[in-house]
Amino acid sequence: MKSKITIYMVIGLALLNSACKKALDLKQQGVYTSDNYFRNEVDAVNAVSGIYSLLEEEDYVGHAEATFDVPSDDYWRSGDHSEDEGIENLTYDASNAAIRYPWKWRYETINRATNCIINIPKITAISTDIKNRSMGEAYFLRAFGYWRLMIIHGDVPIITEDDYSKQTFNVPKSPIEEVRKQIESDLLKAVDLLPESYGSADRGRVSKGTALGLLTKLYMYWEKLPEAITTGQKVISNSHYALAANYADNFTRANETSTELLFSIQAVQTVVQNDFTVYYIPRSWNGYGFSQPLQGLANEFEAGDPRKQATLLSVGDKVDLGDGKGLTTFTADLSATGYAFKKYAVFNTEADGGGVDHSYAVPLMRSADIYLLVAEALIRTQGAGAGDALINQIRHRASASLKPVSGAGMKELIHERRVELAGEDQRHQDLMRWDKKNIVDIAAIYNLAVSKAPLDQNKTVTFVRPKNYYFPIPQVEIDKSKGVLVQNPNFK
Fold this sequence. Notes:
By secondary structure, the protein is mainly α. About 40% of the residues lie in helices and about 5% in strands. Helix 14 (about 365-380) packs antiparallel against helix 16. It is found in: Cell outer membrane. InterPro entries: SusD-like_N, SusD_RagB_dom, TPR-like_helical_dom_sf.
């Protein structure tokens, strides 16, 4: 059964518009605003579902947010978006279109969430459980909007509830420390309000574990390692967020009932399509052929690790495209690197009409990520070997034949995060936070031959510290602010 979220998304979007467009000769029945919309429980649920609906936007999480992992050594940009070349080569400036695209959607997420946070408490015709859940979802989704802004840009404007009441939206940037505190505050409220889990009718909604997971990630990026351990253990110890029995099940329709998916993009092919996966599929298979894995990533997998086969398509591999022609072979002409991401090459069966599966739930945060973040925090606070138990749980889930680690340090932890989370848009940010602590040399890594596509072997990537730790504020936003927004350092 498909989640009701996916149906309410469309309804929520329509109802949250401030004005209705005249359609044919139908009489306009009413105009909804924030002041007159929030009347009952159904309105609250629909309004929150309207926040989720933004995740499918191609210029947001539906694709554009993935662009910010393009500089990593996991994959080559490919595709026909010229702006991605500047991101990959670290030659971008504030006018780069890829930097501009998702900015408005992050703030639209914050806008819709804040609208709910202000107005849902005023509703009287609503059960306590639904009110708490809806408020928790809104707090989480607002935190997620600020999280993406903070991760990508560093210092960014915080729009307070008081700003909303005064309709004051052109405000200066807040220091990153204040942005982190804002995210933490929202996530702590979400943890208190959200349920641990849902029934099948509400599959896809964020849970207490989702908020705890993002809070763990926040503490890691904040270098609050003890807090990350305490928070992450609450995810790890809860059976509602247990690892899937099979790694590959996270990247097939089997993930619809997975406890491991803490946060995902949900969709229904005939209602609200999810276009995320189409970017990773070869063009002759009706995809766009972006994000082609590099040799260095393929080399990272140990012999006998089934995660390689679940993650990568290599020349000679067979795939059922659901076209009634049986298995199709992945050939060298389908990729400039020799690989594609099998994780996202998901197709409908022939019985379902074949073609790219636009209903596939794309994982945005998995419990495995939290296991490894806690393992890292343990290693960095208590020394080599302190994270062995958690790393080995991840390895054993992948395959009982993988040799357990013993006395694992950061080298082993870094390896495990790369092969476990390959292509899930964690690598570039991981490398940057480790580079800041002198754990890795990101500049050297990005200039290894295996970190580049065959077409780019003569290219030199120059990573400038601290400039490239964050992306600039889009120039168009600087211009619109008429001097209120100040550009990030080194992007003048």
